[in-house]
Design a protein that fits this description.
Number of strands of chain B: 14
Largest sheet of chain B: 7 strands, mixed
Largest interface: A-B, 22 and 21 residues
Number of domains of chain A: 3
Number of strands of chain A: 16
CATH architecture of the largest domain in chain B: 3-Layer(aba) Sandwich
Number of domains of chain B: 2
CATH superfamily of the largest domain in chain A: HUPs
CATH topology of the largest domain in chain B: Aspartate Aminotransferase, domain 2
Order of helices and strands of chain B: EHHEHEHEHEHEHEEHEEHEEEHEH
Helix content of chain A: 25-40%
Largest sheet of chain A: 6 strands, antiparallel, barrel
Structural class of chain B: alpha/beta
Number of helices of chain A: 8
Distance between the termini of chain B: 39 Å
Shape of chain A: globular
CATH class of the largest domain in chain B: Alpha Beta
Number of helices of chain B: 11
CATH topology of the largest domain in chain A: Rossmann fold
CATH superfamily of the largest domain in chain B: Type I PLP-dependent aspartate aminotransferase-like (Major domain)
Structural class of chain A: alpha+beta
Oligomer: heterodimer
Shape of chain B: globular
CATH architecture of the largest domain in chain A: 3-Layer(aba) Sandwich
Amino acid sequence: MSGGVDSSVAAALLAEQGHDVVGVSMQLYDQSAIDHDGSRAFGSCCSLSDLNDARRVAAAIKIPHYVVNLERQFSEKVVSNFVQEYTAGRTPLPCAHCNSDLKFATLAERARGFGAEVVATGHYARVEQDAASGRYRLRRGVDPSKDQAYFLFSLTQEQLAVASFPVGGQTKATVRDYARAHGLPVADKPDSQEICFIPDDDYASFVAARSPEPVAAGVITDQTGRVLGRHAGIHRYTVGQRKGLGLASSPTGAPLYVIALKSHEQQVVVGPKQALDRTTLTASGVNWLMDVPAGGRRVVAQIRHRHPPAPAHVRQIDRDRAEIVFDVPQVAITPGQAVVGYDDDVVVCGGWIDS
Amino acid sequence: MRVYFDYNATTPVLAEVADAVARATRDLFGNPSSVHHYGQQAKAAIDDARGAVAQLIGAEPSEIVFTSGGTEADNLAIRGLAEALEPAGRRHLVVSAIEHEAVLNTCKALARRGWRTTIVPVGPSGVVAPDDLRAALADDTALVSIMHANNEIGTIQPLPHLAAMVHEHGALFHTDAVQSAGKLPVDIRQLGVDLLAVSAHKFNGPKGVGALWVRRGTRLLPVLTGGKHERNRRAGTENVAGIVGMGVAAAAVRRSLADDTARVTALRDRLEAGILARVPGTTVNGATDCRVANTTNISFDRIEAESLLIALDLEGIAVSTGSACSSGALEPSHVLKAMGFPVHRTQNSLRFSLGHFSTTAEVDRVLDALPPLVDKLRSLTRRPGAALGAKA
């Protein structure tokens, strides 16, 4: 229970259905760092007021509520990966790590410890068991504007077996209506945006402050290696970025985009928009939620959370890796982000984009 | 059957206390500072309570300053003395490493005004060694603050000895007796201290009221400034109903102390021995030969205390561990850390604290419920000890 409307309604729905529900919120960083001097060491998610909201909702729906301290695990499993990825020239997706490595790992283990059989969250996704194979399938939530299956691609069969997404079959509007009708104190709370643990949306300062090695400055070049300018660390850039490069435009006057980030050389490579177009990508850490024949299969694949799904062919390189070839070029395939392949609205596979 | 074994956090209010508070709220609405009948009624009730609280600790009524609780009493003692002693050039405080946050954070706050604090270590026994205290004293030490009984492990500090040493050194001695008043006989003359803080809700009284005993003749400036209440030491219209409740609770606990101590010791020992016998991998934290009757603090190998606490609560058994953050999540215990325990042991310990209403049936209920819960939690730890940072 994050204190938001989705997990609040998820808990309320389960309680209403007669389940024995225990509310759990995660404390992910030291609140006192925020309380005392007013400065924000971390961002907004699961802030003290969010945890208080969760507590109030739990009291309103008459379930016990606990805040579990997962500061250390969050730092080890989510924050350090986030920092490492940025300094390696990749653009991380911490929410997916948080889901598979924290919520449905450490938190689920804790929950089993006090007798819980299922871990429910407020994600807009659906999980179903395939009658024939017995395998669990992950489906998009019914509200296309809120679907979060993308962020859950890395859940294993074991994790999906104990997962429940009570609002996955609802639209956001229905969820808010339910919250209002049941007098939940968070019914009209705005949706969270941004990455929850980054204060003021300034991820670059966050990464620089936590990188074990000092972040290094370097050069910005064009695709031929010609130096166009300097930068204060490749973690400040992401593939496809146009703004904030601090460059005069290209000789032709066309805008320049970040094409690649080379971590060994601390080099930012820029080029024209068409240089962002690519049809093929490889991904690792792939989770195969459905079996894929040796020759591969057709999917619709998404290279970002808010990216239109595009027809593609996915092929297993090995158990861990996949190659995805799109029918038409995709713009700004970004290492570190996830690629998720669907059969209609069912997740076939997902992995971390390498190149 | 619900079991409440968290008396060191707070205690259930006695019926006679609740009745007295309700009566005072209804009938004694007068301002004790008022000259008229209503004021006199309220003032008289406060005086009665002051007498009862003074009796509990062997003090004179005029030496009692009512506060909003133990935290304020500790603040008044430390800040009030610091401000009084500052002109004399003394700017050094000495406290033990296992003090309550009310003391530790007050010292921290005084650092901003140029005060230094020396923290006296404790060993695995959780008891301050006189030599360690002696080594911490400096020429300009103004005040030593060492608690009487520790809230987490229950150990009792050798205050008469420590206070005498501090007095020889020319400094004053404050003790936070919040966890001892009502659990063992507290006599300020015998302890030899100069200031002593107590809190009503730790001995079946209401919350929001406590007291600081200040030895007559001790210079102390108020922290809350305003009217001339509490002999100029604590301004603000008195919490009449709370103070009345504290008085009734103090009188009651004084009557029942001897019987309760014997009974609660037996229950605590039954619980402790039962846990050690039925749950493998358990150890009692801190010295067992000098602790309050009601407390046992036990480490469970390969257990995350937070999980066990939640599991027990869902079974209707209320215990506690370490300290909680503002969110309610649990933090590693600073007391166990100070005792030199490795990180995993500061996160695998539960405190069971019993009291006036505890029964054998409750103890046996815990002894039945605990072993299977521990087994279950241990079976979920994939790599033995690893997830808990064992050997960290």
